[in-house]
Write a structure and sequence with these properties.
TIM Barrel, 12 helices, 276 residues, single chain, alpha/beta
């Protein structure tokens, strides 16, 4: 299962935006067939997927395709995404586990193997179903659609209303070992770098481990906040080394630099290194 710290949107039918997204330093690019593409431009956007995917791969970047929600559009999008070898699909308006499972089956039939899915949760109903969505086979991540969620709540997309669904997504994703992509900040505030950094750090503190980005300036912040610093890596390696030595002596609890180290602490260090 991949761990992408940052996933950057680009309209699939905009060659320049796709090229810039591929070179922005994100772990993955989301080639958008949904909201970023006009209704009449869907067929051309599907045709352009191959070029966008090639640009991403030339930079060593993962390729995610966001499909449309209506069934007929979704099936055509699935065909196009499978044809270009997308690494994952992002499914919008995710709130019905049965619908998501059906999409997964269609994608698997087209690909002849399972297709990783990221469920984009954009409604209160979706948040309520977050655990069921995350538990489905093939789901590698849950993402929060801040604007549509706030619209359904009939409130402004403030941190106050977005904090709770971000926490729920983090909790549900953790139960299934999936990515939690949920920064509790309106996407309209993409130019406010300090606000974005603060929101990302807040989210990281309760288990969010990645972000969907709509502007390249957000990518470096997400990579840093949801990545592992050299100091954190060194500390995790030190903890594991001390823990393995202690276990060889039959000890279950040790002290390291004045800190108690037991099994949960050691396993957390192991998970950090595995994620890195």
């Amino acid at each position: 299962m991949p761990h992408w710290r940052s996933l950057l949107f680009a309209p699939a039918d905009n060659e320049e935006r796709c090229r810039k997204a591929a070179a922005a330093g994100a772990d993955a690019v989301i080639l958008d067939l949904e909201d970023g593409v006009a209704a009449g431009g869907k067929p051309a956007a599907r045709q352009a997927l191959a070029e966008g995917a090639q640009q991403a791969r030339s930079q060593g970047v993962g390729v995610v395709v966001r499909i449309n929600a209506p069934w007929l559009l979704a099936v055509e999008d699935l065909r196009a995404a499978v044809a270009v070898g997308a690494d994952a699909l992002m499914v919008p308006k995710a709130e019905d586990p049965h619908r998501l499972a059906t999409l997964a089956q269609i994608a698997a039939e087209l690909k002849r193997e399972s297709m990783p899915l990221i469920a984009l949760v954009e409604s209160p109903r979706g948040v309520a179903q977050a655990h069921a969505l995350a538990a489905l086979p093939g789901v590698i991540g849950l993402a929060l659609g801040t604007e549509d969620f706030s619209l359904d709540m009939a409130v402004e997309p403030s941190g106050t209303v977005l904090d709770w669904p971000a926490r729920q997504i983090a909790l549900a994703a953790a139960c299934s070992g999936a990515m939690a992509l949920a920064v509790p900040l309106s996407i309209a505030r993409f130019r406010e770098e300090e606000a974005y950094r603060d929101a990302a750090q807040q989210a990281a503190a309760y288990g969010v481990n990645g972000a969907i980005c709509i502007h390249p300036r957000q990518v470096a912040i997400a990579n840093k906040v949801f990545g592992l610093s050299e100091a954190e890596r060194a500390e995790a390696e030190q903890i594991l080394k001390a823990w393995e030595a202690a276990r060889a002596q039959g000890l279950s609890v040790i002290q390291l630099d004045g800190r108690m180290i037991d099994l949960p602490v050691a396993e957390r260090a192991r998970k950090l290194l595995a994620r890195a």
